[in-house]
Amino acid sequence: MERKIRTRFAPSPTGYMHIGNLRTALYAFLFAKSQKGDFVLRIEDTDQKRYVEDATRVIYETLEAAQIQHDEGPDIGGDYGPYIQSERKDMYKKCVLELVDKGHAYYCFCQKDDDNRHCHCRDASKEEVESHLSAGKSFVIRQKMPLEGVTSFSDFVFGEISVENKTLDDQILLKSDGLPTYNFANVVDDHLMKITHVIRGSEYLSSNPKYILLYKAFGWEIPSFIHLPLIVGKNDDGTVSKLSKRHGAVSFQDLLNDGYLPSAINNYISLLGWSPKSDKEIFSMNELIEAFSLSGINKSPAIFDYQKLDWVNSEHIKLLPFETFSSMAFPYSKVEKTNLEGKWNEIAKLLQPRIHKFSEIPESIHFLHQLEDYHVELFINKKNRSTLETSSDILTKVVHTMKQVDSWDIDVLNSTFAELAEKNNLKFGHLAWPVRMAVSGLVVTPGGATDIMLILGKEESLRRLHVGIEKIQNHQML
Question: What per-residue confidence (pLDDT) applies to 365?
Fold first, then answer.
């Protein structure tokens, strides 16, 4: 009978979740779910010096927001707990003493600054060890590496890898405080929790031979290994380096704070090192589960591209029901308790198909709150055959016509503009260009001239049109 696929995500509670860690969690989750398997959450808190208060809560909240649901974990339990390493001390002690008895590990009483690659403690007699223990001397327990031969393993992404055993140091398995190191605990936990596929970053490739030797020393079945490529960022000089804060937002929370949707972050991160078997790029979580396969994971480093993330996020924003988008976007708008609050639905309808992320909203609609000073040359546009003279003439006619409009709704505004354009032998766009410049003071706006005038209302629209006319006239008088 085939073993049930079981993967795990084992973060350390040391702060916000880095993009690389989130991708590891996502791939482990997607693979397990695509194979009808289990996804396990395990908290690796043995490095107490790096422990950050509330970091475990952040892990839970991040996974929940990212729609990565674990089947077993500290908060929901399971058959293989506890799922927090600091609560498993007795298991590690039992396992490490088994290795000592088998001759695959040894007590080391050396000082921290000693050269302990293969220290003399590995050859100490049983009597010498017992003497040090009886005297209460501090110790660690180290793995006893073979001094000759080769250790090989097969990685799903990087292929067959072999390392000469003489290059491997006698790594610490159990620290002087009685807690295991990551290098020991992850092997013990993966075995006891029946993990079938270990998915983690490629930075662990160099340590994997040590893990293989531990599995062999215990006589345990070795799981499948999938080491993921690095995620890199673009530097100012065009080179790339490991993704860090100098490249921008690098944690899930940073991206949320920048106005990205969790579904879009997942979607984009899934494409950092994995290629679907189609040209499809926009995925829901269920679609990712259905499409995911280990064969799509690439070996080359993945470049984090914020422009591509923006595009993916904009596509997810467009897929939101309007009511959901309007509710999510409102806090960014700063229209509450202003004369624009009553026009929020009209503003939101303009924003949804145009923004890349929610944090763009304040700047996108600032002109609605206040018309900033702008240069008169905005009215000049060759494509729309717009000059200062034609703009002044059009704005004057628009003011005269719009003063007579009683019903200020979008259909009336559009039909009035269309009639005025036809009457003056102009295309709609040629008429609208100087009007949009006058009411916004911007080349790029969410929505066209009539959309903006609808939101501003009649009085403010006419005021801004007059400002545009005066600006052109003053310039012409110079």
Answer: 96
